[in-house]
Amino acid sequence: MANKVFGKPIKRKEDPAFIQGAAPFVADMHLPGMAHMEILRSPHAHARIRSIDTSEAAKMPGVLKVISGHDLVGRMKPLPCVWIPGGVESHFPLHPQDIPGAGMPLQTDHVRFIGDGVAAVVAETRYQAMDALRAIRVEYDVLPAVITPEAALVENAPLLHDSVPGNLNAYWTCGDQPSTDAAIADAEVVVELDLLNQRTINSPIEPRGALATFDPVTDEFVLYASTQSPHNHRLILCYYVLNIPLNKLRIIAPNVGGSFGTKGYVYPDMPLVLFMARELKRPVKWQDSRQGYMRSTVQGRDHKQRAVLAGTRDGKITALHCTSHANLGAYPSTIGPGVATAMMGRSITGPYAIPAAFCEVYAAFTNTVPLGAQRGSGRSEATFMTERLVDLFAAEIGMDPAEVRRRNFVQPGDMPYDNGLGWLYDSGDYPELLERALKHAGYDDLPALKEEAKARGRRMGVGLASFVAVSGVGPSPRMAKEGMLGGTWEAASIRCEPTGDVVATIGSKPHGQSHDTVFAQIISERLGVAVDRISIRHSDTLGTPFGQGSYGSRSFSMAGPALYLTCDKILQKACLAAAHKLNASPDEMIFENGRFYVDGQLERGITLLETTLALWYAWDIPDGVEPCLEATTFWDAPDFNYPSGAQVALVEVDPETGEVELKRFIAVSDVGVVGNPMVMEGQLHGGIVHGLGQALFEQAIYDADGNLISDTLERYALPKAAGLPHFELDFVTSPTPHNPLGVKGAGEIGTVGATAAVGNAICDALREYGVRHIDMPFTPEKVWRAIHPHGG
Amino acid sequence: MLPSTLNYAAPTTLGAAVDLLATHPDAVFTAGSYRLLIDLKMQRIDAGTLVDLRKLSELYGIASVEDGAEYGVEIGAMTALSTLASDVRLLAHYGALAEAASETGDAQIRNMAALGGTLAYDASAGDVAAALLALDAVIHTHHSKGQRSLDAADFFTSDGKTALRHDEIITMVALPSTGARSVYAKFTHPATLEAIIGVAAAVTLDDAGRVAACRLGVCGSVAQAKRLSAAEAAILGGALDETSIARAAASAADGVEWLPSLQASAEYRAHRLGVMTARALRRLVKA
Lengths: 792, 287
What we know:
The complex is a heterodimer of chains A (792) and B (287). Chain A contains 20 helices and 28 strands. With 792 residues, chain A is of the alpha+beta class. Chain A has a domain at 489-635: Aldehyde oxidase/xanthine dehydrogenase, molybdopterin binding domain (Aldehyde Oxidoreductase, domain 4, 2-Layer Sandwich). In chain A, helix 18 (677-696) links the parallel strand 27 and strand 28 (727-731). Chain B has twelve helices and twelve strands. In chain B, strand 4 (62-64) and strand 5 (73-76) form a beta hairpin. The N and C termini of chain B lie far apart (51 Å).
């Protein structure tokens, strides 16, 4: 590409509407005759339902309909799970279509977590619906709850699902166990670490909502929902849950206020509003509250890892072994089990060439909120574990942590590199990323700064994190082996309109990723049409081609190439028409700046708009060429892409209080070719903050009975901009060979290294106190207790 | 969730405001509303009528002796915390209050929150509570039976609430002129930005550098905002030096009753209160 538009930091087309509060979300929508639904959820983490009495609620003011799970029997099927642990035996709740099930939208006899639904009310107003919930009488026999996977897997533990013996969803492995065990047995140095990568609660600014309409004349539904994946969710709802033809449901995702993984799931409220809209023949809306969101939307992370790293005295890592217990929560979320296994397990070797590696995951059901993806999912848990181990290894052999990393990196010349666990790294320069980050940090001058901090009664620490983060789901045949029960290709159409406007329709949809701007930049670059004449249509299953949606940092590297290749098709057809108009051969045509001309005769040309018009009128177009100028591409990537990075955190710890101050954060990233640097930096900033939140503040806290204690933003701390330093960003560019744009995912890599960088920095700061490891979040008290194990 | 309907009134006289409370049993006063709206939404309080005090113009502003004030300064109860944080008189002579105001919430909250509102609703949890204890503040009120003035030490009650009656409006907070220098220190809750611990110290040194008067106040996740009398006794009458400061730090948490907190254990908070008390006192040694 000539790169006049693509690769430039043009301002986001999306921003004016958001900044001015003009962009509507589901919560803002009101349709004529709209009624409101509320869901009664279990107050117990684990209980048998003895009886449900909705009779009083039905008499409440404004109440239109009350249902319990019994009213859905035979009329609605369980939700399905479509990403299962690949290649291994696995057990799930049942589904009548021989697909793994994920539980009924409302339970009839057994509730398994505090967000499990038992009844639903529709009333004229939201408040009436809420009031009516309180009039529903449910008798429960409370059962013992299991909160951790270890507890769920012991013999005679309370059983969640009859079809899942011992609560074990799957035992999943990757890598070479015998050679890993042998390498560890023979190793000069072995370091071990037990850690909990704590459960977190994703907190996009918009909680979820769903609004359904039903037209009794045409039997057609419309669902407005805050979803990452409208097309997938349409397929799941129609085919697996509601038994309605695919073409009778249209899903529109209006603006979605962030997601970070949590809105890529089919939740019970979605089929319920559709069901109620059909029952009542009125629009029915459900809108979650923040607290509701925290109690019933998928949560993230939650791996209990035991890891062993082996190496030589001269700093060579020879083996890495990880045993993890993954907490899936009460039900498999739509894609949760795949996230909890492959995304973590295959990623543990990071950017290092480790001759022997093995990971095993016990994925178990517990009486907690279902687990799902959270920005950087799997890769973040793997990176935190491995990067902490690398630092412990460095300390054990008395070598600088940067030097240990240098001695073990996969080298650029080794690409493509098979990491032995299932990933084939495409491109990257991991040594350069680290050297660049160290240079920005002034790594060699840090000892003097540490002394200076110590003179002030503080302890300074520096933490490094090097990582690779598989992105761009993905190649469909490969994802099939990985347990994905569906294709993961992407689609795009482009139509050149006779007015000079260009409209592209894509299956992917944004929830903050700047599709409208960056995808217009691709088209603008290729077709020579101004960005403001290009519309990107998405988020509505009517009029857009099927696509997977946005998750796993995939849209730019999946929908982007689909658009790019569609531009090629547009130009190929336009070239034929232009050559015809100019009485020239298509072979002679040059396309530049939105205009075709005959090679060597710049004045003998025709613009793309004139060509578009010629094809539109079709009065004089070449034989065999169809009228109009539009094209569609369905694109499947040959493989994933592998963005990478190196991050450095500088912290100061107050040993008297344990307070941690993040002084500097440096991130050098390789996301391949960059489409819009400003958008990409925004993704990096958000991603880094996400990681810092987990490192410093965030933790979902359950009590022994399975109550979620941290279910409000008063009890669940999120990072705040005012408390964070300026992020120092730099970039290295290694284009991926796996798509024609050379682009890699950028949505998650900020997150993937940040927890490790901060954790390593804090442990470095506290080295003189003999502190080896602290589990996240690094709260002042936890850090203080690590320094003062016997108290003050 | 917010109640489905709320009555709202914005009286322009104190009398009318108090009358509304008398005639509406479900009424509560609101000032900046930042705390009240959260409490309503979380169903922690039940109210059917909001009596908004923002139109009571006589409750605004800061008066000093030059303005005719009886005390050192007199602060109208509706004065915003952001105003307190930047007031040059407070910064010069009542540093603990200016600092406590500037440490409350975030900028948007400080612009909305009124001194009287945070006293009434945040009570012992509010940052200004410790400062007012250290500054020996007198809280003036208006209610249906008349007016009264309460010493700060009597204002915060042991149940975590205040001595205010249902229909009582804080009108003014008076700070006596003592010549003490004062500071505020805070251990901030990462989610709410409230004080897990707030400690204010006000110290008057005599010509010989001895502590002629001192008042230390604690607020935050405590059952009651109160003076730290053991720590005060540790420094009163002697030199303010590392020895006496260490004594004060060691006894700072004596008698402090901690509320449950997910963020920090009582043991850690007791330790930290000592560290914070020492650091606050060190700031008063210097300059």
